[in-house]
């Protein structure tokens, strides 16, 4: 089965995510990394799950660069966040996620916090790296509380299936739109890269991501004549990040919580709790996750990142879609990407801005566009009723603008339709 066919998987709605550690009736029939067979429609693992470390997993590992690189560059260049802490935060948590979940479980920057931090649109005070760290501490506390008390699981159970599918579809559309925006600077180059990638995904067994990144590096060197000389000056220098918690004061944590962490909460709840659980359990029913596990791991990864002076992070559903779209099927993809980022943070933190320039916006836009398409195509089978399809599409439209509002709308619209208050 080819890479794109992951989006064609059918599954039993009675067993979809919502914290149920059950195997859907219709399990995916692509290579999941398990030594398993389909028995009576279900995947029966025959041995312990194994992460793979092959070329396909390595190609899929880069499927989430479209969100990671732009935010990392902005944090480092605009807000002066320590690149060593940022990269070690991502590297270690990606390795841990791959080892624990054994699926291409993503770790991404929190987008609302990132956008507010780097554009200084969060309020009346100038944001500082210490406030970003404070936001990480507050985020960790919130999600550890939601996970430990079971509130994350109970609240997510209120979200009906049509609303859930609409959120996932809307997130996919928002990724596609952002990808188009990133490609718009060099339309001809972007169109050629997109066409080449689609052709390779459809017809070639050679991982499309590898050729896309190589072509993108050539494009970057041609568009930036000085880049080759700057790369020649890059040298590995070991540098460890500082432990920054002792330098924090309560004002940093309070301002980070109010201006950054709390406004991010609805987006994280919809995208990095409900949607990622749905996406993982749809694609990998033999390795299910629950909202409680995801909430707890979100808290733990923010504890680690904030301690190193890194940035707030989450498990975004679009990241998994990107990894899968380009070939990842196990946690090996997360582990390999995490290892590269860990190595980069330890030895190339001072040069990371130069190295990231090898990934031009046209390449990142293609990656983001195709990841969004993969995510949106997973929102299938909304139900037989016309009103269910309306709830999915209307929720998706709201999700393009604001995921938190989309979740609320989807819940209200679904229950209104069941009571006969909404007819279409």
Q: Please state the CA-atom Rg, rounded to the nearest Å.
A: 21 Å
**Would you list the SSEs in sequence order as H and E?**
EEHHHEHHHHHHHHHEHHHHHH
Summarize the biggest pleated sheet.
2 strands, antiparallel
Q: What proportion strand?
A: under 5%
Integer count of domains: 1
Task: Summarize model confidence as the mean pLDDT.
Answer: 84
Low-confidence stretches: 1-47
Rough outline? globular
Please, what is the oligomeric state?
single chain
Helix content: 55-70%
Through-space gap between termini: 38 Å
Strand order of the largest sheet: 1-2
Total helices: the number is 18
Considering the chains and any ligands shown, give keywords for the structure:
424 residues; mainly alpha; globular
Write the layout of secondary structure elements.
Elements lengths: L35 E4 L2 E4 L9 H7 L3 H14 L4 H19 L6 E2 L1 H9 L9 H21 L1 H6 L4 H23 L3 H17 L4 H16 L3 H6 L17 H34 L7 H17 L5 E2 L2 H9 L6 H16 L4 H5 L4 H17 L8 H16 L1 H16 L6
């Amino acid at each position: 089965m080819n890479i794109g066919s992951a989006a064609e998987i059918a599954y039993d709605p009675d067993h979809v995510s919502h914290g149920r550690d059950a195997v859907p009736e219709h399990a995916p029939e692509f290579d999941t990394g398990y030594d398993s067979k389909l028995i009576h429609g279900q995947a029966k693992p025959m041995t312990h799950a194994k992460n793979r470390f092959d070329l396909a997993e390595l190609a899929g590992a880069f499927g989430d660069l479209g969100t990671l690189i732009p935010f990392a560059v902005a944090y480092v260049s605009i807000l002066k966040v320590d690149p060593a802490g940022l990269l070690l935060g991502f590297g270690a948590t990606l390795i841990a996620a791959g080892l624990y979940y054994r699926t291409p479980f993503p770790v991404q920057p929190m987008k609302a916090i990132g956008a507010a931090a780097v554009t200084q649109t969060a309020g009346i005070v100038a944001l500082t790296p210490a406030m970003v760290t404070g936001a990480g501490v507050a985020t960790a506390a919130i999600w550890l509380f939601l996970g430990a008390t079971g509130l994350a699981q109970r609240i997510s159970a209120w979200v009906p299936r049509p609303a859930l599918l609409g959120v996932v579809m809307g997130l996919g559309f928002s990724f596609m739109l952002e990808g188009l925006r990133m490609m718009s600077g060099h339309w001809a180059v972007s169109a050629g890269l997109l066409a080449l990638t689609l052709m390779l995904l459809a017809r070639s067994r050679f991982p499309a991501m590898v050729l896309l990144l190589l072509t993108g590096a050539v494009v970057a060197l041609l568009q930036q004549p000085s880049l080759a000389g700057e790369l020649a000056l890059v040298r590995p220098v070991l540098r460890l990040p500082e432990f920054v918690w002792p330098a924090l004061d309560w004002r940093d944590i309070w301002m980070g919580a109010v201006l950054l962490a709390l406004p991010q909460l609805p987006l994280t709840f919809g995208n990095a709790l409900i949607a990622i659980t749905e996406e993982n359990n749809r694609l990998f029913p033999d390795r299910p996750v629950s909202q409680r596990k995801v909430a707890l791991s979100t808290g733990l990864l923010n504890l680690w990142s904030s301690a190193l002076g890194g940035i707030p992070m989450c498990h975004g559903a679009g990241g998994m879609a990107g990894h899968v779209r380009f070939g990842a099927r196990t946690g090996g993809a997360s582990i390999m990407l995490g290892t590269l980022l860990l190595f980069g943070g330890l030895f190339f933190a001072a040069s990371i801005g130069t190295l990231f320039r090898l990934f031009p916006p046209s390449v990142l836009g293609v990656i983001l566009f195709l990841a969004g398409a993969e995510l949106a195509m997973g929102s299938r089978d909304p139900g037989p009723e016309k009103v269910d399809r309306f709830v999915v599409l209307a929720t998706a439209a709201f999700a393009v603008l604001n995921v938190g509002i989309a979740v609320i709308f989807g819940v209200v619209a679904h229950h209104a339709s069941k009571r006969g208050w909404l007819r279409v």
